[in-house]
Amino acid sequence: MKALKPMLGPTLAKHVWALAHGIDHRPVVTEHEEKSISAEHTYAEDCHDPEIIHQTIVRLVERVGQRLRRSKKKARTAQIRAFND
C-alpha cells in the first residue's frame, strides 16, 4: 500500500489494496440491462465450406433475433467478425 499512496492518495490506495486482496463489502449486483446482444460460434477446425458457414450465420442470426424479440428491443447495428490465426 505504501507504493500506492503517493500515486493515488491514502483513500483510493486503501480501496485498491483491499480490492486486490479480495476485500469488498459492496453488495453484488447480478441484474443489469443488456447493452448488446450477440451470439458466437467457433469451429473445431477451420471451415472453408460456404454452405456450412452460411448455415452457421443463419443459426446465429436467428438466436440473436429471438433474444431481441424476447427483450422487445430492435437492432441498430449488425456485425459479423471473422478471425484468422
Helices and strands, with pairings:
Elements: H1 4-8, H2 10-20, H3 50-71
Describe the protein's architecture and organization.
With 85 residues, the chain is mostly helical. It is 45% helix and 0% strand. It is built from 3 helices and no strands. It has helices at 4-8, 10-20, 50-71. The longest helix is centred in the last third of the chain and has 22 residues, at 50-71.
Task: Based on the model shown, name its key terms.
85 residues; mainly alpha; 3 helices; 0% strand
Overall shape: elongated
Work out the strand percent: under 5%
- The beta-strand count equals 0
Kindly report how far apart the N and C termini lie. Answer: 41 Å
Major sheet attributes: none
Mean pLDDT across residues: 91
Unreliable runs: none
Number of helices: 3
Rg, rounded, reads 22 Å
Helix-strand sequence: HHH
Structure classification: mainly alpha
Helix content: 40-55%
Could you write a compact summary of the structure shown?
The chain has 85 residues and is mainly alpha-helical.
